[in-house]
Amino acid sequence: MTTSNNSLIQLNNFSYQYPHTANNALKSINLSLKKGSFVGFAGPTGAGKTTLIKSINGIVPHFEGGTFSGEVLLNGKAADTMSTAEIGRSVGTVLDDPEAQIICLDVEQELVFGMENYGVPPAEMEQRMQKALASVGIAHLLGRSTASLSGGQKQRLAIAAALAMLPEVLVLDEPTSELDPLGSEEVFRVLKQLHQEQGMTILVTEQKTDLLARYCDQLVILREGEMVLSGTPREVFQHPDIFELGVALPEVTELARRYYPQAEPPITLDEGVQFCRNVIQTFGG
Amino acid sequence: MARVIEYIYRDSIIHQLNPLSKLAWALGVMVLALTFNDPYYLLALLISVGLVGLTGRVMKDLSGVMKGLSIFALILVLLQVVFYHGAYREAVTLGIAMGLRMMTVVLSFLVFLSTTQYKDIILVLTEKMKLPYDYVFMFMTSLRFVPTFLNEAIQVGYAQQVRGCPIDSGNPWRKMKAYIAVALPLVLISLKKAERLAIAMETRGYGSNNRTYYKEPIISTLDYFVIFLVVVLIIGAIILRCKGLGVLH
Amino acid sequence: MNPVIKIDGLSFGYEFGDSVLKDIYLEISPGEMVALVGQNGAGKTTLVKHLIGLLRPPAGKVRVADLDVANTRVSKLSRQVGYVFQNPDHQIFHDTVQAEVAFGLNNLGLPREEVEPRVTAALSDVGLEHLANENPQRLSRGQRQRVALASVLALRTPVIVLDEPTTGQDYQERKQIMALVEQLNKAGHTIVFITHDMSLVAHYASRVVVLCQGQIILDGDTREVFRQTDKLAESLLLPPQVTVLANQLNEPLNTSVSPVILSVDEMQEYLQRVREVKRNGAGD
C-alpha cells in the first residue's frame, strides 16, 4: 500500500458493492487529493459519483452496509475505522435535495445543530455561526425560518452549516440538481470564494459540466464505477475519448473541437469569442 | 392542520417563561380539568386558559383551531344525549362538561406549543425531564415535517388525478380505492426523505457524545412563581374535590 | 386552425400572498411545441396546472380542447391533456412497471385487450419494454421518469404537458427524453414543456413563452425570443452559450442584423459564412 503523507484524501484500490446488488458500484479507484484542491466529478447516472462522495464522508460503508476492498484514507487514517460522526468533524457534507437536508426550523438552529452535537462550547458558537453565514453571503438571513428560504439560499445554508463545524474538506453531491440556473451559479460562486479565500478543499459532483469547467481546478470523469479521465477541465475536454463518455461539453468547447480536434480547446465564453475571432481571421474555408 | 403545532413568534411574557413552567402549567390545567366535572368550574378553567393565551398574544392564530374544536365539542354533547341512559338534562350537562374539558386541555397545550420554540421543548424534555434525546428529537423532528408531508400529499393527489384516478368521484368505494393510490407513493417518498434526513444528520455528528446547547432558557423568579401557583392550585383542587365541590353526582 | 389551448385574461393568487399570475393571454394551436421558461417562482407550474383543472380558473377563462376547464372534472380533462410531473415518485406506486403504466388506462375503464397493447406501445416508445416486469423502485431516477412519461403517453391525449421533464437526468437521458417528446410532437401531439435548460429550448421548441413575476413578457418564435437579450436579462435568463457567443462576435454578414444562432451546427455554418464574406471582401 502506498501511503503518502501529504494527501488529505487518498483512495487506494477502493472497490465497493451495495448490499443486494450484483455489481461493484466503484471499481479499484485510486485517487489522491491534496489540501486546497477543487475537484469536480462528472459522468452519467450510475457512474459511481454519489458512491464516491459517500465513501469519503463515511456513509459508505457505515450507513449503507455492503462490502468493500482497498482503503479510503483521511489524513492518513483509514476511514472505516472511524465512525460517521467522527469523520463528520473533518468532512462537511452537502446533499442534492435542499428539502431533505435542512433539519431544523430556523436558520440559527440549523447552524448550531452540528456544533451542539460535537459539544462546541456555547460561547464559541456565536462567532463560528457569524463567520459561516458571512462566508456564504447570507448573514442577513439569521433570524429567518428555514421554510421561507429559496432553493439557492437553502443550499447555501447547508454549506454554512457544514462550515460552522470547521471541516477540512467539503463534499457536495449534485448540490444544484434541484436549483434553477441562478441558484446553481450562486452555489458555485460561493464554493469558488471558499476555495480562494479560505483554501477550502472542495469535492463536488455535478451534471452541469459547464459549471465544473468554469469553477474547478481538476475534473474527474467516472463511468460504470471506474475513473476514466482526470486532469484540468481543459485537459479532460481535449481528450479524444471525451465524446464517448456521456458528459456534455460546454458549447464553445464542442465547437472548437470540430475545428481542431487535437488542440487545447476554449472552455469559457470569453475564450470562445477569442477562438471564433481567430477562426474568422484565418480565412480559408 | 399544519398551523396547529407551529411556534408563533410574538413578544410576550408567556413567550419569555421557561418552557418547564409552561409545561407544568399545561399539565396542571389537565389535572384540574380531570378533577372536576361541573360545567361552571370547567368553564372558569377554560376562560383562565384563554386569558393566558391572550397574554401570549396567540389566540387570534388559534381561533381557527378553536372553531373546529367547538364543533367537535358539540358532537360530544350530541353523542351524550343520544347514548346516555338517564335523564335528558343530566346527559346535556355531562356532555357539556366533556366538551369543555376537551377544549380546555387541548387549548392549554396549543398555547404551550405556540409560545415555546421546538429547540427549547427538546432541551427541557431531555435535560430537565431526563427523557432520552433520540426519542425526543425524532418526535419533534417528525412534527417539523408535517407541513412538508401535507404538501407532498397534495402533489401526489394531483399526479394521480391527472391519470384519471377518481379522487373527485362521488362513489365512496371508488374514492377509497383512489386514496390508496395517494397513500402508497406518499409512504415511499417519506421513507426516501427519512433516509436522506438520517444521512444529513449522521454527517453532522448526530449521536456523538457530550453534546452542548447553544442557548439554555433561563429560570426566572416569575417561573418559580408560576410553578408554585400551579402546585397550590392542584392542592386546592384536591381539597375542594374531597369536600365534594365541583363534582356532579 | 382553432387553438387547442386558449387562455383569456387569467389571473391567480393564493389565499395568503401576492398574485402569482397576472392577466395571462395565451393561445396555442394544435401541433405546436411550446417551451415555457422563467425563474423559479415566475408562475410556470401554476399556469400549467390551470390547463388540467388542478387549479380552477374562473368560468370561461381557460379552454382546452373546447372544454371549459372551470367546470370540467379533472378525470374528464385527463382524456385531453396528459401531464407529466417533475418528480416521478409522486405517482409511482405499483410493483411492476407494466402495472404502473396501465393504471391510467384502467381508470379510463378501457377493456383489457386495449390496455395491453397500449402499455406495450408506450413502454417501447420510452425504451423500457425490457423492464416491463421490473419493480419501478429498483430503477434509476431517469428510468423512473420515463416510466412516468410512459404512463401518460399511454393515455394518448392530444395535448401533453411536461413539467421539467429532464430534472435530475444526465446528458444522454436528457437527449433521449427530448428526442421522444419531439417525436410525439411530429406525430401530432401539442406539447407544452417547462424547463430551465436553454439549450433544450433552442434545440426543440418552435415557440417560447417567457414568464416573469406572473406575466408573459415574451412570446414568439424561438429565434425571435432569443434575439431579445435585454428582455431576457430582465427576467434573469441567459440564452444558450452559442447564442451569446454569436451575439458577442457581432459579425452581421450582409444583412443589417446579426443572426440568432441556436446550435453548435448553426454556429459552425455561420462562422463559415463570415469567413466567406471576409474573403470576398478582402478580394475586392
TrEMBL record, chain A:
GO CC aspect terms: ATP-binding cassette (ABC) transporter complex
SUPFAM superfamilies linked to this entry: P-loop containing nucleoside triphosphate hydrolases
Q: Which Gene3D superfamilies match?
A: P-loop containing nucleotide triphosphate hydrolases
A single MF term (Gene Ontology): ATP hydrolysis activity
Q: Which SMART domains match?
A: AAA (SM00382)
What keywords would UniProt list here? Answer: ATP-binding, Cell membrane, Membrane, Nucleotide-binding, Translocase, Transport
Superkingdom of origin organism? Bacteria
Q: How does it sit in the membrane?
A: Peripheral membrane protein
Q: Which Pfam families match?
A: ABC_tran
Every ABC transporter domain range: 9-249
Where does the UniProt annotation locate this protein?
Answer: Cell membrane
Is the keyword NADP in the record? Answer: no
- InterPro entries noted in UniProt: AAA+_ATPase (IPR003593), ABC_transporter-like_ATP-bd (IPR003439), ABC_transporter-like_CS (IPR017871), ABC_transpr_CbiO/EcfA_su (IPR015856), ECF_ABC_transporter_ATP-bd (IPR050095), P-loop_NTPase (IPR027417)
Family note: Belongs to the ABC transporter superfamily.
- Name assigned to this protein: Energy-coupling factor transport system ATP-binding protein
Automatic annotation (TrEMBL), chain B:
Stretches that traverse the bilayer: 20-36, 42-59, 71-88, 94-114, 221-240
Q: Where in the cell is it found?
A: Membrane
Q: Major location, coarse class?
A: membrane
Q: Which UniProt keywords apply?
A: Membrane, Transmembrane, Transmembrane helix
What are its GO cellular component terms?
Answer: plasma membrane
Q: How does it sit in the membrane?
A: Multi-pass membrane protein
Is Transmembrane helix included in the keywords of this UniProt record?
Answer: yes
**Does the keyword Transmembrane helix belong to this entry?**
yes
**Record protein name field:** Energy-coupling factor transport system permease protein
In its UniProt entry, the species of origin is given as Desulforamulus aeronauticus DSM 10349
From TrEMBL, chain C:
The listed locations are: Cell membrane
Q: Which GO terms describe its molecular function?
A: ATP binding; ATP hydrolysis activity; ATPase-coupled transmembrane transporter activity
Q: What is this protein called?
A: Energy-coupling factor transport system ATP-binding protein
Family the entry assigns? Belongs to the ABC transporter superfamily.
Keyword set includes Hydrolase? no
> Matching CDD domains, A to Z?
ABC_cobalt_CbiO_domain1 (cd03225)
Q: Where is the major localization of this protein?
A: membrane
Q: List, alphabetically, the InterPro entries matched.
A: AAA+_ATPase, ABC_transporter-like_ATP-bd, ABC_transpr_CbiO/EcfA_su, ECF_ABC_transporter_ATP-bd, P-loop_NTPase
Q: What do the Gene Ontology cellular component annotations say?
A: ATP-binding cassette (ABC) transporter complex
All copies of domain ABC transporter, residue ranges: 5-238
Which controlled-vocabulary keywords does the entry list? ATP-binding, Cell membrane, Membrane, Nucleotide-binding, Translocase, Transport
Q: How does it sit in the membrane?
A: Peripheral membrane protein
